[in-house]
Amino acid sequence: MFPIEKIGGNRADEPDMNRELFHFNRVSAYYVALIYATISLAYILISDILLIGLNPDDSENLLISLGKGFAFVILTSILLYLLIRRSDRRRLQLQNRIYDLNEMMNQKEIVSQVVRLESIGRLAAGMAHNLNNIMAIIEGNADMIAGKCSGDDTSKNLQAIRNSVARARGLSDTLLSFSEGGEPVKELIDLGRFVAEVSTAQLEGSKVKLSLDIPASLSTVLADRGQLRHAYENLLINSLEVMPGGGTISITGRNVRLGEKEVADLVAGEYNRIEIRDSGPGIPDEVLESIFDPYFSTKGQNRGLGLTLAQSVVRRHGGVVLADSPRGQGARFTVYHPVHRYVPDQRVAIERGEMRTGRILWMDDEQGIREVGKELLEHLGYEAVTASDGQEALDMYREAMGSRPFDAVVLDLVVPKGMGGAETMERLLDMDPKVRAVVCSGYSKDPIMASHLEHGFMAVLPKPFLIGSLKKVLDDILE
Length: 479
What we know:
The chain has 479 residues and is of the alpha/beta class. The protein has twelve helices and twelve strands.
């Protein structure tokens, strides 16, 4: 059995390598045949002298003997040369086949890994959607209870529920970061304050001390808050896991200007540079090369996806994460984010204190969400009507146009057993080009959520949502 797993190399280099091997083997065969001929001639000459008493001074007999020997040696040398050349050709053919087999095995491994990641993506998207639907029901009911009850104990318990929902929302964002087609839903973020909040929360209750050196002048970035949060959480978790007995994590932030490909493959421009250093044992050189690879881990049962997620998220936002380990200084992760200059909106802010009135059609396949949505809308002063799928919503909207039309529509994006929000929106626009619609989904990273205006929606409402978020969205589209 050939040790195929040990045979590698760049296929692009193989033609030159094979030519060199072929030339070397041809020369080798020539010299082997020449050496064989020389030795054979000497052997024949010595044998004739010893066996038949040939006198070296007898030139005629010597030439006859050499002629016979030379003819024999030439024939056998040619045969030997051809056999060696044929053997070399066979060896090169076999070597090429092994290279091809090795390449095929590598491609199969890559395909297998891609399929595995795609499976994780599909599973993650489905889990996140269901999780967000459940959290929307929990958070909506918590908001309703908060509006009806008072007291410190009740407020404390409701805040605990909201905090748990926020953490669960973060988990769903992590799952969605691995789902297919997950596009960032971006907003302007004060990166300095954001990193300080995430790191403080992540290190709370641990034995690790936090040192922050982030100036207030750090520029803003345009990013998906949920995805960015989990990118930094995973970078911090990596440092926490290597310091179970305690230590220090130091985070610094700076504005920098980079030249073209000065750092990795980043384009020239202004960037925020965030450095996360820990006082742990550092990262071995052989680990650094693979530290961002999926499933790579040095921590036993750890699945090795945290740093892959962090790199994927930052890359998706136009940046990069670098890892190194200065001797005696622990591990260092350096994150580069492209700067986004904030241009203040010059419009005058509108007071939102008063309650609105109007008719809202809410479409969702989850009964619990329909019930919570209806109750929240009524609490805000709206008349609410619900539908379980797109077709029912279209029928209700068409019927209402002749009597009491709806002022706005909230459409669930994904309805597994019926017409979803995107198709419903297309038909609503045909029916009423002035329809005011909000897309609502637990698939908060769906491309339609990121480009909702292109599909006719006026706003997005990711699940789970607070009553304040619902109020703001409806206020915006009904102004």
